[in-house]
Design brief:
Glutamine Phosphoribosylpyrophosphate, subunit 1, domain 1; Rossmann fold; eight-stranded antiparallel sheet; binds 6-O-phosphono-alpha-D-glucopyranose; EC 2.6.1.16; cytoplasm; glutamine amidotransferase; Glutamine--fructose-6-phosphate aminotransferase [isomerizing]
Length: 608
């Protein structure tokens, strides 16, 4: 996830794109840059590693009268967050400049061909191939060159391009990454989302996948892949500036929950092919992985709950003994670990959690193979592990982690299937599971449509002061995560427990004022969990359940049910957790809490 913006009009472009970039910073903020077209002096480029504020500081005192500019704020995917990898990227002669959001999947092959043709690269990004391709195809008209270049790309993109050899023009295109055109009076803006254009105009055209737009001061022309011109309607944005940053959602937490389907797609992109899992990030250590006999997963918070599922995946699918340790415990334990042939998976959204980092360093000292499952590219955990997988979930702003959890679970599942090959898992079994995984984003989409029911349930729930979350096997980590979400954002006391263990203590608390949230999909332990729920009902405890659509057994025992679509039982956590995140969100709202910034919590805990 990155933010892109471009301006063409009569006003000085630099302050406009800088202001827009700040509004897009939530999409990524590890580096920023801009290119301003200047009539006589050629394009002016400024880039920094760091935030938009730093870019702005760099430009203080610069005279930049240009009225055409493109700009970018980055969330690194390929290449460390450094100045050389910051966008815009230029061609060999620094005449064409381009900013990109997305991932070019065939960048390695294209890069090799372009280098063979004499192009010189100056960054480690996948993006740079696009600008060299445009250079290669340039015959005097920028839109023709961009159109030709796009035909050779595989992957996702929103791009904005300008060229000193075809001045007074911006060409933009979209494929699976958001892009819109803001239409002002005598001026146009292109941006990743509405928040970046609202200060200038409320009238926009949403650019669709496969479309390209050529913008001059005189007007714009939208074309599709066949170069046919499209007539598009102007849409009036109904949001205020502040609402727009959240994509129209009232809170980042809700926005991030709603991103679940794309998040699952992103973490799988390019990794699931023809019934197989390909993980480029683990290739460098594939020989060592072949000999792994034991796996330790370490993490804190929500990432720890993802790790608990990882343990099940590695054991059930790959047949490799696995265990989970709180990072804070792992580092102080003198457990007799057979460190040879042990792989440590460090799971961290931020890649900066102090305990997780310390555990990772301890594992390295002991000679373990270390693997990171990290969302923030270039973060410390990502840098210090031997190999790893990025989640590609995009920036998570809400302090309570939601979409990152989904992506961590999928990343762990992919890693387990990857390791299972040639071990415990047959080809057909892998294929079936992957086919079911591919259907998960749509299943989450259908779940998100049930939000009204969840909101209604939240209203019934909000007056309680305690709650017990129960689940077994796959649903046990989900119950822990559901309880964590609820306490984080609503300050309602909630405990996650194994449904069977519940009768060894917590059942003493149960009465009509102590509700239970049961995670009970139709899986191999469903009947057992149902028996545990009978024990709750016998003590008049209210029961709210997450169950598979059409499960009469559960609805006859529960006071309220949220249904999830049927799926492969291993994948049920990916569906069960979404309504629990929404439930926590709506209970938090009903109780008047600041769900995006809960009291006492921090997004990244960099102290022990
Ligand atoms: C904090 C955050 C949690 C997060 C945990 C671990 O407590 O509030 O949302 O799960 O840290 O963070 P990490 O970045 O390592 O996943």
């Amino acid at each position: 996830m990155c933010g892109i913006v471009a301006y063409i009009g009569k006003r000085e472009a630099t302050p406009i794109v800088l202001d827009s970039l700040k509004r897009l910073e939530y999409r990524g903020y590890d580096s920023a840059g801009l290119t301003v077209e200047q009539e006589k002096r050629g394009p002016f480029v400024a880039r920094v590693a760091g935030r938009v504020g730093k870019l702005e500081a760099k430009l203080v005192g610069a005279t930049l009268p240009g009225t055409v500019a493109i700009a970018h704020t980055r969330w690194a995917t390929h290449g460390a967050p450094s100045e050389r990898n910051a966008h815009p990227h230029g061609d060999c002669r620094a005449r064409i400049h381009l900013a990109h959001n997305g991932i070019i999947e065939n960048h390695a092959a294209l890069r090799a061909t372009l280098i063979a043709n004499g192009h010189r690269f100056s960054s480690d990004t996948d993006t740079e191939v696009i600008v060299h391709l445009v250079e290669e195809r340039f015959r005097g008209t920028l839109e023709d060159a961009v159109e030709a270049a796009l035909r050779e790309l595989r992957g996702t993109w929103a791009i904005v391009v300008l060229s000193a050899d075809d001045p007074g023009k911006i060409v933009a295109a979209r494929n699976s990454s958001p892009l819109l055109l803001g239409v002002g009076s005598g001026e146009y803006l292109l941006a990743s989302d509405a928040s970046a254009v609202l200060a200038s105009t409320k009238k926009v055209v949403y650019i669709e996948d496969g479309e390209m737009v050529t913008v001059t001061r005189e007007g714009f022309r939208i074309t599709n892949v066949d170069d046919a011109e499209l007539r598009r309607r102007l849409v009036e944005i109904p949001w205020t500036l502040q609402e727009a940053e959240k994509g129209g959602h009232p809170h980042f937490m809700r926005k991030e929950i709603s991103e679940g389907p794309e998040v699952v797609e992103n973490v799988m992109r390019g990794r699931v092919r023809g019934g197989e899992v390909k993980l480029g990030g683990l290739e460098t250590v594939s020989k060592r992985l072949d000999h792994v006999e034991r796996i330790v997963l370490t993490a804190m918070g929500t990432s720890y709950h993802a790790a608990l599922l990882g343990e099940l995946f590695f054991e059930e699918l790959a047949g490799i003994p696995a265990e989970v340790e709180y990072a804070a415990e792992f580092r102080y334990k003198r457990a007799p670990l057979a460190t040879r042939n042990t792989a440590l998976f460090a799971i961290s959204q931020s890649g900066e959690t102090a305990d997780t980092l310390a555990a990772l360093r301890e594992a390295k000292r002991k000679g373990m193979l270390t693997i990171g499952i990290v969302n923030v590219v270039g973060s410390t955990v990502a840098r210090e592990t031997d190999a790893g997988l990025y989640n590609y979930a995009g920036p998570e702003i809400g302090v309570a982690s939601t979409k990152a959890f989904l992506s961590q679970v999928v990343a762990l599942l992919l890693a387990a299937i990857f390791l299972a090959r040639g071990r415990a898992m047959g080809e057909r079994e892998a294929q079936e599971l992957l086919e079911a995984l591919i259907r998960i984003p749509d299943a989450i989409r259908s779940l998100l449509k049930e939000e009204n029911e969840i909101r209604a349930l939240a209203k019934r729930f909000a007056h309680y002061e305690n709650a017990l979350f129960l689940g077994r096997k796959w649903s046990y980590p989900v119950a822990l995560e559901g309880a964590l979400k609820l306490k984080e954002v609503s300050y309602l006391h909630a405990e996650g427990y194994n449904a069977a263990e519940m009768k060894h203590g917590p059942i003493a608390m149960i009465d009509e004022r102590f509700p239970t949230v049961a995670v009970v999909p139709d899986d191999s332990v469903r009947d057992k969990t149902l028996s545990n729920l009978e024990e709750i009902r016998a003590r008049n405890g209210p029961i709210f359940a997450i169950a598979t659509r059409g499960d009469r057994g559960v609805s006859s025992i529960a006071d309220g049910v949220i249904s999830i679509p049927r799926t492969h039982e291993i994948l049920s956590p990916l569906l069960a957790v979404v309504p629990l995140q929404l439930l926590a969100y709506h209970i938090g709202i009903a109780r008047g809490c600041d769900v995006d910034k809960p009291r006492n919590l921090a997004k990244s805990v960099t102290v022990e």
